[in-house]
From TrEMBL:
Residues 14-23 have a biased composition (Basic and acidic residues). This is M96 mating-specific protein. Residues 1-13 have a biased composition (Basic residues). Residues 1-23 are annotated as: Disordered. It comes from the Eukaryota. It comes from Phytophthora megakarya.
Amino acid sequence: MELVTPKRRRKKKQMDSNRARNARRFEVVKLRREAEDLELMLQQLKTIRSQRDYMKDKSAQTTEEDASAIPEVWQDICARQLARRLKAEKENIRLKKQWKEEKQVVKGIEKMLFKKMMQRDIPQQGGSKHTRRTDLPEEYIKRVAAFVFDGLSSGVDASYRDVETIIASNGHAPTNVVTHQPLLRGGVKGMYRRLFDKRVVPFTLQETGDAWWRLWHNYRRRRMPDTTTNVITESFGLEMTDFKTNASGTSYGQQILRRYVEENRIVFVWNSYIEPFVFENEPVSGVYMLEQSHVLIRPEDPETTADDDEKDECSTSISTCYVITPHFLDPKLKNDPKTTTLIDFLG
């Protein structure tokens, strides 16, 4: 006998007709809960913020109370420290300003000294040559020193006897104009050259003579000799440079200077022997120069140097005459172009 299992009936799903409305209702409930949570969070944040502001105000009040409670002795200490600091800052500012001013003064002095040094080594206005003393070459001293000084000494004596005639016969430079360049005469190739100059200074005869004597020794860069010494004999090397042509030459020189101090005049006479041995970096020989120079210092007649209303009784005239003569050991050198250039350079 077979058992028959009864079949179960499937239940049909029931359709909810209010499904959409229920979903919106659940959504509204959810949003209300979230709004309540946010409202609670906002209240908590406000509470925290108010507590924080309260703590800040309390802390500031406590700080003010603590500051007001500082003893007066500490206030005095702080005030003194502040005063010292301000004083030190003012002193630093003053020292810095003083340092800047002194620095400007130092720079000005440096510029002035440098300018003077440059002017000492460059030619004066109106000139283009620079001359300075150099060491003596021994071979030239041994060769010519023995007989040159004798000839120069004789020339000095002759020049002294003729000084009045030489200066008076050639006229004078204008007395009212101080010339930077002397008045040249001659200048013919192979012939002597003469240079004349005269100027009037408002000093006495003795003052003018002493000033000229000091100027001579300053030019030589030597110490002043004994005041009773009236004769100077010297040998030297001479280096000349022409800045316009960049030409240079080195020569050997000997000279004798003699001073004559008289009642109404002072006379300086010197004769020089100049022998070049290097010109344009090449050796030269066979030519030398003889220089005869006169300086006549005497009181000037007030009637010739001043107007009728004002006459300077202390005026002194300085008359100068230079005579430079080239000599050639070989007559052919007289017309040699290089020798002519050398003579023009030395003259």
